[in-house]
User: What shape does this take?
Amino acid sequence: MFMTKPMAIEERSMEIIAPHLSGLDLTDEERKIYSRIIHASGDVEYAPIIKIHPSAIAAAKTAILRGENIFTDVEMVRRGINLRTLTKFGGEIFCKVADSDVREFATREEITRSMAAMRIFGKRLDGAIVAIGNAPTALFEVLRLVREENIRPAVIIGVPVGFVGAAESKAQLAAQNDVPFITVAGTKGGSSIAVAAVNAILYLLDTLRGN
Assistant: This one.
């Protein structure tokens, strides 16, 4: 007989995940984010490859409470984030990858649309949350903006997936000290992982408010 009650299913999922986190010396908040990422992926092999900067969760929570926006690389990330909860704090979610000005800019500069979108966002990324789940080029561009143009997001959730540039872009993110981050090592990742990380942080805040 299979389980049918949503809360029971979720609770059982977390029970299954818990032993895989037991030796990682995580804070309660880190444990919740790890659990949500693993739950979203259905893959306990994420446990040892998730990397959370010591300041990342606090920085993300502060940004959300301040009403800062979230900027994403693809529509799948934008649509997956819990907008109802985010709007309680005054934030919005932006993705420009399908916009005509981005397409034109990308064609002219011979770069990807995700990369072009981040370049066009530019200074709007200051103090905001950047959530990249698909395009390594978008993450490379955000890191260039940080390094060369002194743009400082509150936190970068960078988990692009794939075999070309994904591992390298995430390694570069984890190696820098200018902006707190949440990432995963290697080729794993994807939009659902970025969404899980953002929603886990929103859930922490929503629970704190008692909503």
About this structure: The chain has ten helices and six strands. The radius of gyration is 17 Å. The chain has one domain: 48-209. Residues 48-209 form a domain with the Rossmann fold fold (CATH 3.40.50.10230).
